[in-house]
Q: What sequence folds into this?
């Protein structure tokens, strides 16, 4: 063994550094995302182009394979059965393949009208050709001639002879202005209602005027109002031809009042009848037998004079010409005077 060397460096055992532990790298797991599959766009069948017919009616859309056409219980001659003898209606119905198509068009048109979407025909130009005017009238349903307008209005109104010339004149004017039938009928309805309103107003005015005048005569004639009025009427009936009498019944004065309701007119007729036929004034309606009727009635009153309890003495009392007595006593005086006047005229 060799001796130790004091100057020799001590031998240091090498330090063994253990290598660092090899750490396996962390595995970052990326989640597998399912690929987004974009479905192909649905193939949409191209919309069928529906060309509306030239007359403006809504066309019925064609059937698609998914909409089976169901045949209705329509007879082959359904158009002819509906149109009857109206060629215009028949020609319009020929534009539709079935009643369903026609009804579909109707409801579509009504829908457009109610929503304000209905197309309005263009106004006619001042220099429109006859062909353009004809087409325009057909589109609006305007008849070819004024006589084609329907002048029958609601509630069974019948135009009188005095109104017919006015109606004819109006439809002729309306036709020159290409007025639609609906407007013509609405205006005629207004006119008819206006005429009826005026007639009702006149009727009430006449009734009120007659009552006011009869009240005047009643104050004068009292209980004899009915008889005296009848005497006045008999004057016109006996002295005038029937046609003249009929015209007088509807005659009016300068204020529009009926003459036959005027107290002065009635009073004058009463007075003239008394002068023309005194006997008839006492027994109205007796005609040529008036004198005989007066004699018969006088005899019956004379018999009452022999009974103090008869209507001649005990009957209802009235005042006539300032004299108060029973009705029968007044009647006796009236008959006696009439008999004397009649004798004086012979």
A:
């Amino acid at each position: 063994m060799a001796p130790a060397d004091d100057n020799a460096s001590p031998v240091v055992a090498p330090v063994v550094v253990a290598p660092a532990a090899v750490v396996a790298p962390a595995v970052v797991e990326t989640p597998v995302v399912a690929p987004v599959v974009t479905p192909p766009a649905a193939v949409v069948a191209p919309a069928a182009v529906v060309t509306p017919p030239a007359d403006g009616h809504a066309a019925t859309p064609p059937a698609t394979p998914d909409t089976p056409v169901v045949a209705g219980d329509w007879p082959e001659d359904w158009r002819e059965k509906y149109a009857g003898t109206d060629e215009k209606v028949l020609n319009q119905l020929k534009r539709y393949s079935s009643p369903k198509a026609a009804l579909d068009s109707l409801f579509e048109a009504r829908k457009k009208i109610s929503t304000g979407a209905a197309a309005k025909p263009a106004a006619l130009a001042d220099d429109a050709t006859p062909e353009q005017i004809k087409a325009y009238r057909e589109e609006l349903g305007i008849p070819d001639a004024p006589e084609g307008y329907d002048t029958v209005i609601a509630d069974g109104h019948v135009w009188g002879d005095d109104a017919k010339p006015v109606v004819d004149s109006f439809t002729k004017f309306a036709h020159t202005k290409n007025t639609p039938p609906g407007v013509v009928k609405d205006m005629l309805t207004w006119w008819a209602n206006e005429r009826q309103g005026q007639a009702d107003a006149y009727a009430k005015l006449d009734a009120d005027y007659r009552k006011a005048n009869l009240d005047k005569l009643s104050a004068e004639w009292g209980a004899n109002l009915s008889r005296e009025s009848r005497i006045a009427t008999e004057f016109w009936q006996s002295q005038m031809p029937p046609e003249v009498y009929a015209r007088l019944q509807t005659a009016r004065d300068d204020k529009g009042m009926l003459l036959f309701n005027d107290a002065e007119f009635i009073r004058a007729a009463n007075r003239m009848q008394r002068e023309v036929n005194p006997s008839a004034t006492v027994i109205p309606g007796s005609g040529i037998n008036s004198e005989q009727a007066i004699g018969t009635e006088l005899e019956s009153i004379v018999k009452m004079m022999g009974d103090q309890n008869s209507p001649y003495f005990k009957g209802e009392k009235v005042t006539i010409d300032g004299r108060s007595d029973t009705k029968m006593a007044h009647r006796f005086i009236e008959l006696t005077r009439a008999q004397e006047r009649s004798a004086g005229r012979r």
User: Anything to note?
Assistant: The longest strand covers residues 317-320. Strands lie at 317-320, 323-326. The first helix runs from residue 78 to 83. The chain has 13 helices and two strands.
